[in-house]
Amino acid sequence: MAGGTAVVTGAGRGIGRAIAARLAQDGFTVLATDIDGAAAAETAALLGPGTTAATLDVTRRVDVAALLDGIDDLAVVVNNAGIAAGMQGVAEVSLAEWRRLFAVNVQGVFIVAQEGARRMEEGGRIVNIASRGYLGGAGMPHYVASKAAVVGLTRAMAVELRWAGITVNAVAPGMVDTRMLDGYPPEMRRAMEAREPSGAAADPAAIAAAVAFLASPGAAFINGQVILADGGKCIGVPPL
Q1: How many separate domains does the chain show?
Q2: Residue 184 appears among annotated catalytic residues
Q3: Which domain CATH number covers 67?
């Protein structure tokens, strides 16, 4: 069991909702936030007492600071809010699209983590959601770069904040069964899932379990690490 308040961004659905549910189960008071306030409220309603909701744009520092100022026992911050990218090669990605992804996936993570760290006491936990994509891949250089930046930020913050007794780690999911997959044609999704070690996309609860571990008191000696939660795909994939 844990205690204190856990703030989860992007908690309106998918991985974020699963994380909020798991942390509530583990004994945290959960604040589920999302830029879609109705979705965040739905998460809170599903989880019941002990979970509240708030609309939050992670790129707006003034809003992040105001929200966190209302919490006097901040124990965990989970930076799950992020946006995906369409398939575009290096030659096709526009600067506007590059900036859009970095605004949410990197700047948003930095703002929430920084403001959270300023309000945490010893024993605080920051968990950033990266992606297996940070290892590299064709067709979305802006997304890959943004998630690689999250990994770098995680390690940089961990080096500094360890002296304050705050750990900063990341979870890098592989293919997860969320609405991000809805845009793929069925035949493409089947081909992608065939390359997964389990033969299917992961349940969001599997990612939430990794986050819950890093947020737990038992993970006090783990800092600056990236857990690749992809079923082992990172160590090799079968041929198409």
Answers
A1: 1
A2: no
A3: 3.40.50.720
Residue 87 maps to a domain:
yes
The tens digit of pLDDT for each residue in 127-143 reads 999 988 878 877 688 88
| Residue 239 in domain | no
Question: Which pLDDT score is estimated for 153?
Answer: 98
Tokens of 184: 């793929």
Amino acid residing at 213: F
The residue range of the domain holding 137 is: 5-230
Confirm whether 196 is domain-assigned.
yes
Q: What is the dihedral of CA 223, 58, 33, 118, to 10 degrees?
A: 50
Q: Which of 124, 143, 166, 170 is catalytic?
A: 143
The model's pTM: 0.91
- Taking Cα atoms as reference points, which of 34, 80, 48 lies closest to residue 176? 80
Confirm whether 175 is domain-assigned.
yes
- Alpha-carbon span 155 to 134, nearest angstrom: 14
* Three-state DSSP state, 217: helix
- Per-residue pLDDT, averaged over 25-45, amounts to 98
- pLDDT for 108: 98
pLDDT in tens, 54-103: 999 999 999 999 999 999 999 999 999 999 877 777 888 899 998 999 99
Dump strand ranges (E) for 24-166.
Answer: 29-34, 51-55, 74-79, 125-129
d(CA 213, CA 138) in angstroms, rounded, equals: 31
